[in-house]
Structure to design on (107 residues):
């Protein structure tokens, strides 16, 4: 079962691409490796890589030099990466989830 990954953007601004480009090369390499797994298996990868946050929202967890998180949703075999951020605390901050939920309504 394969999926297609789409990166969220606002108009012409590629928010997720810009975030990824701000990271170290090793972290970027791990991100693309994880995106490849996500395309092949979807959210069924499970822990420790994918965690369900709500009915429609999932967290992709990437640990390398930096601890990075992507929040995504799945619609019709398309995985929409809608928010990315560096994780600084044990628990995801509510503001990060609110950003993702707001973007979720726009796709």
């Amino acid at each position: 079962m394969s999926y297609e990954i789409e990166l969220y953007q606002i108009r012409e601004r590629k928010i997720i691409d810009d975030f990824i480009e701000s990271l170290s090369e090793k972290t970027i390499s791990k991100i693309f490796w994880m995106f490849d797994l996500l395309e092949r298996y979807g959210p069924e990868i499970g822990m420790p890589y994918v965690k369900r946050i709500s009915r429609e929202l999932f967290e992709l967890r990437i640990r390398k030099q930096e601890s990075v998180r992507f929040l995504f949703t799945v619609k019709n075999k398309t995985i929409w990466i809608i928010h990315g951020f560096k994780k600084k605390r044990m628990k995801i901050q509510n503001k990060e989830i609110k950003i993702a939920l707001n973007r979720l309504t726009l796709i």
Remarks:
- The beta strands are 4-7, 50-52, 58-63, 67-75, 78-86.
